[in-house]
TrEMBL record, chains A, B:
Record SUPFAM superfamilies: P-loop containing nucleoside triphosphate hydrolases
Stored Pfam families: PRK
PANTHER family registered for this protein in UniProt: URIDINE KINASE
Protein name: Phosphoribulokinase
Signal sequence interval, chain numbering: none
GO MF annotations, alphabetized: ATP binding; phosphoribulokinase activity; protein homodimerization activity
CDD domains: PRK
Enzyme class, first EC level, given as a word: transferase
EC number: 2.7.1.19
Record keywords: ATP-binding, Calvin cycle, Chloroplast, Disulfide bond, Kinase, Nucleotide-binding, Photosynthesis, Plastid, Transferase, Transit peptide
Catalytic activity entry: D-ribulose 5-phosphate + ATP = D-ribulose 1,5-bisphosphate + ADP + H(+)
Family, per entry: Belongs to the phosphoribulokinase family.
Subcellular localization(s) per the UniProt record: Plastid, Chloroplast
Organism from which the protein derives: Digitaria exilis
Length: 395, 395
């Protein structure tokens, strides 16, 4: 289960405009609530107060679905970094939280919408993966309020002004159709069973002293609900980052060298998939050769059109890992539609967070690229909104 | 055995310059001799008379090695066409000749250097593939004379003024080290046994009524000498065009859909290998996709560095065949270092000779590309020669 909280910053002061006859002083409030693992406190419900927004700048809503321990917090750090704000732990929040925030981005964890706490779930015999343990009505109401530009309060009380980017991350961001329809962009982080197992062994056995048997048992126990309720969400995602074992080392199961796929849905508004060399054709590319020398097992890229749950998609794949910076800038120079603002921005972002997990492989690269694509999506939406009244005034 | 002759045109009138104290009127002659299949006449030797050249324009010498029935004449038509002259059958030559000529290019067939005729070979028990049936001393002397810019006579007497491009084609252009060293560029046309067999069946069985057994027997009979004397020459070639069965159709042995490799030696003076997308890395490319629709079995390209007989090479491979023009221009637009003079020149050349065998596959494409590379090589050599005296004058 993810440990996370709802956080934002207050540095966004949007211009106040009249959105209703009552002006911008009529207020409602949304109470968000955080889990606090240390105190063991967990809410089973929420009081809701609405506060009318004085802003025309409504947030762009992003959904990120993933299991726990799948690197969501690293992804969120990379995302917020792309927007230029300093990423830092939430003020006054849970110090163990996976969530980080920046000037522009608010990330809330959907664990906050558990309608049943640990004891409640035990009594009813459901897991946190089960929709029955989650309050989708409340999730919908509150995300909708944020999307409409309403300010809200955290618990402990803290005013949330609508951020530029509002991310809901957790197990079920695309489960409920109403919530799904609020999302401007959705991402599914899909860690294959083999890699998940290797990672869990690394973390729970090496770092936490669990036995191999208990790890296996816990994975097996989660699997039916995971397959029933979490996994099916990937069909709705605009982008899926799929993490698989490498194919460069025969029979590798260490989970250290990874093959990562970025599956990008075609025809999504304001989202133009990245491509390698030639848009729409099928390509494999081993950049290691005369110009670039890579150590074992090297790097292999693949790109091409495909279908994914009946949708037309473009898939970019990276197997292997980078040794050095020049490999990354070399790769970046051959990718198109990256939505960078200058040549080398992907490499710069990756270098800035070289200490983050996955910075030398496809997880870091594709998370960074998705961050850039979300920035681009945000800017297109803002430009559209700015253009729309002007267009209306013309008529 | 190839049926061919020595031919040239007389349209090149080079400026007369003094190359010796005796001026440019002292003359020697080289007698070339042609085979004439219809009359059954074949020479067993040659009279040689030298004629001092009055030209500073010495020909660029190209060697093309290939077995008979491997498409050399089509290759020569494509090559001469790239140089802009009209390709036509040799005047006064053997009307059955495989050789074509243009304003700028002379092609001679090395069958003319057989030191033993059919009867002589039968007596001594050697094949035409055997070096003992070929007069390499004479080949060397005459090619050397041509390289030095000496004019020569054909038999029946016809003045050969040094052409721009002088091609020696046949079974042994790279066999003799002295002859090999005279070559400015060398090409080996390497038809795999499977394809050769399929082609022979098509030609000798379907068109000439031979039995399958006799075709198999004739291939088997040639094979030991071919492997001993012809095949080893490919290690010396600057470019090898290798023709293999397709891998796009499982277990295909029809020899209709071909996989063709263009193996280009690195570090050859005035020859800069063609590449796909990214020089020096390894790439596969299926252009058929969203932008380009191809019929079964499609088209697949591959490119990358490799080693070939211990030499560093770049290999460009095409499997499959073109349906339409837009596929070719699409492919051309993604190839670099083509040495074209304008965008689309490869496609234009291919269209010009759409009726030639192999125009819809890698044989035609790579022959055309090699033609362009030879034009480029020729122009670089001419520019060097023009620059060299000027440089000398400075000192």
């Amino acid at each position: 289960m993810a440990i996370c909280g709802a956080h934002t910053t207050t540095s966004l002061h949007s211009p106040c405009t009249t959105v209703s006859n009552t002006g911008c002083f009529q207020q409602k409030q949304v109470i968000f609530f955080t889990s606090n693992r240390r105190s063991g406190r967990r809410h089973g419900g929420a009081r809701t107060f609405f506060q009318v927004s004085c802003s025309v700048e409504k947030p762009v809503i992003i959904g990120l679905a993933a299991d726990s321990g799948c690197g969501k917090s690293t992804f969120m750090r990379r995302l917020t970094s792309v927007f230029g704000g300093a990423a830092e732990p939430p003020k006054g929040g849970n110090p163990d939280s996976n969530t980080l925030i920046s000037d522009t981005t608010t990330v809330i964890c959907l664990d906050d919408y558990h309608s049943l706490d640990r004891n409640g779930r035990k009594e009813k015999g459901v897991t946190a993966l089960d929709p029955r343990a989650n309050n989708f009505d409340l999730m919908y109401e509150q995300v909708k309020a944020i999307k409409e530009g309403l300010t809200s309060l955290l618990d402990p009380p803290e005013v949330i002004r609508p951020p530029k980017i509002f991310v809901i991350e957790g197990l079920h961001p695309m489960f409920d159709e109403r919530v799904r329809d609020l999302l401007d962009f959705s991402i599914y982080l899909d860690i294959s069973d083999d890699v998940k197992f290797a990672w869990k062994i690394q973390r729970d056995m090496a770092e936490r002293g669990h036995s191999l048997e208990s790890i296996k048992a816990s994975i097996e126990a989660r699997k039916p609900d995971f397959d029933a309720f979490i996994d099916p969400q990937k069909q709705y995602a605009d982008a899926v980052i799929e993490v698989l074992p490498t194919q460069l080392i025969p029979d590798d199961n260490e989970g250290k060298v990874l093959r990562v796929k970025l599956i990008m849905k075609e025809g999504v508004k304001n989202f133009n998939p990245v491509y390698l060399f030639d848009e729409g054709s099928s390509i494999t590319w081993v950049p290691c050769g005369r110009k670039l020398t890579c150590s074992y097992p090297g790097i292999k890229f693949a790109y091409g059109p495909d279908t994914y749950y009946g949708h037309e998609v473009s898939v970019l794949e990276m197997d292997g890992q980078f040794d050095r910076l020049d490999e990354l800038i070399y790769v970046e120079s051959h990718l198109s539609n990256l939505s960078t603002k200058f040549y080398g921005e992907v490499t710069q972002q990756m270098l800035k967070h070289a200490d983050f997990p996955g910075s030398n492989n496809g997880t870091g690269l594709f998370q960074t690229i998705i961050g850039l694509k979300i920035r681009d999506l945000y800017e297109q939406i803002v430009a559209e909104r700015a253009g729309a009244p002007a267009e209306a005034a013309k008529v």
